[in-house]
Amino acid sequence: MKSITCYLRRLPVIWKLMIGATLLMFLLFATYNFAQYLVLKQWMMHQERDTLHTMMSQVQVFLKDKTDSAESLKLPDTQAYMRDILGKDQMMRMIDEKGKELLLVAKNFDPAWISPVQARSDFLEDAWHGEDHILIYRSPFALGTERGTIEIATNLETFDHFNDTLLWVMVIGGFLAVCISALSGWAIANQFLRPVKALAGAIQNVKQKGLQERVTNIKNGDEISELARLFNELMDQLETSFRQQKQFVDDASHELRTPITILEGHLNLLHRWGKNDPAVLDESLTASLQEVRRLKGLVQGLLALTRAESSQSSDHAEFIRIAPFLAQIKIRAETLYPEFTFKLSLEQQDSMVKMNPLHLEQIVFIVIENAVKYSGENKLVHIAYRTIHHEVQISVQDHGIGIPEAELPNVFNRFYRVDKARNREIEGTGLGLSIAKNLIQRYQGQISMTSAENEGTRVILTLPAVSQT
User: How does pLDDT run across 37-49, given as a tens digit for each residue?
Assistant: First the structure.
């Protein structure tokens, strides 16, 4: 038994489902047919007994009304009546107390098959003669002073043949039902497991070909489809995560190469002869510290960008009123950059957005920091907001050196720095606007920029307006 269980456990799922469906159908069909066979057999036997009982009642009534002695049993009309009430394969016999035959009427029935038996009361008996099944009904009678027994017997050959035929029909029907259920179970199991096979194939393809593989053409709307959808979403997230990691490594290796090369050059200089010259030593240490700070800024910027790309928009989202929020931003900006003038323009309608306050603050300060860095001699920064078509627009305008129109499509790329004024003398990593773009897109928002050289730059943050319910 244990070996059978182990063998069944090792079978493919499609075979398990097919065998299970077949066994279940077989048990249901066998139970139903067996119960039907027994009920039908008992009902038919009950009908045969009722038939014999009715015939016996008719004979008793006839004897009571038409005859008054044993001699009258030999009359032609008596025998004709008895013959009329008999059916095929039946016999009626009357015997006296000594077993002497008084009357015998038979149709396709050999009286020698049963022996005469006296009856003290009515009773039914099942008897067999070879392969013939016989049902006998015996009842006592009285004709004047004559006493005896009436025997009515019927050969149940037709009844048994019908039962045997019915049994064979049920067996053959059961076999066909099992075959059909096996084929149906296999087809249903194969159809059911097709999405699972597709999912397994996709996982295998991921293993062999990479994270770009997906499960396709599973849109049944059932649990398997939901599993496939979740798998595809998981693979999307994994692919995005790996792509971000690869981008992080590529960007880091590219951007770190320059400061590391500079550090290496200064250290080699000091190692060879510069450490003995105080001026060279001081210059090299100053340059090295500057590059270390730049390295630190690059790493922090890359980490911030990675967090922005992987964060979820629902993390700690709150309803934010724009007017008081920007008022606080203005106060902080004036504290950080006291040499600048920040002008805040607010519309009368106080709109709201729903997002993480830290993210919105980070986005706005990235834009303000860029405006401060590249304002030039005009140290005025204009901050404003307005609501247009269920959208909140926050704008930050500087009046600095501006950006050439040809460069505008690239300003949100990682590490992109416009050559003019955006050189290594101005601190920065070129990651700020990329971080802002990734963060705002998490909240179905947009960031755009307009600029003109020597006139200034305007950055517009667009976010969906919400109402607090």
Answer: 888 888 888 888 8
Q: Token pair of 20, please?
A: 């299970």
The token duo for 315 is 């993390």
Using CA atoms of 302, 306, 309, 312 in order, give the dihedral in degrees to the nearest 10: -130
Centre a 10 Å sphere on the Cβ of residue 119 and count the other Cβ atoms it contains.
Answer: 18
Assigned token pair, 57: 């009642």
Max Cα distance, the chain (Å): 162
- Among candidate residues 130, 145, 164, the one where a domain is terminated: 164
List the one residue out of 21, 285, 38, 32 whose CA is nearest residue 163.
Answer: 38
- Two tokens at 111? 């009286």
Residues 157 and 23 in one domain: yes
DSSP string, 53-116: HHHHHHHHHHHHHH-SSGGGGGSHHHHHHHHHH--TTEEEEEEETT--EEEEEEES--GGGS--
For the chain, what is the domain count? Answer: 3
Determine contact, residues 160/85, Cβ cutoff 8 Å.
Answer: no
Bridge-based pairing of strands 318-321 and 352-355 is: antiparallel
pLDDT for 268 = 81
Verify that 11 and 138 share a domain, yes or no: yes
Mean pLDDT, contiguous 10-residue spans, the chain (469 residues): 62 74 82 87 88 88 72 74 86 87 86 87 86 89 82 87 86 84 80 76 78 70 76 82 74 70 77 72 79 75 66 71 93 91 85 90 91 88 91 93 86 70 55 85 92 91 85
Per-residue pLDDT tens over the stretch 434-463: 888 988 998 999 999 999 888 899 999 999
Residue 76: give the domain boundaries: 2-164
Which of 212, 218, 214 is CA-nearest to residue 196? 218
Alpha-carbon distance of 256 to 270, in angstroms, equals 21
Query: With contact defined as beta carbons under 8 Å apart, do 195 and 232 qualify?
Result: no
DSSP type of residue 426: S
User: Would you give the distance in Å from CA 58 to the centre of its chain?
Assistant: 72
Residues 39 and 147 placed together within one structural domain of the fold: yes
| Structural contact between residues 152 and 56, judged by C-beta atoms closer than 8 angstroms | yes
Helix axes 223-272, 157-209, angle to 10 degrees: 20
Please indicate, yes or no, whether residues 151 and 8 belong to a single structural domain of this protein.
yes
Pairing of strands 146-155, 456-464: unpaired
Our CA angle for 137, 166, 128, nearest 5°, is 30
CATH of the domain at 388: 3.30.565.10
**Surface-to-core class of residue 151, CB atoms within 10 Å of its CB (0-12 exposed, 13-18 middle, 19+ buried):** buried
Does residue 216 lie within any of the structural domains? no
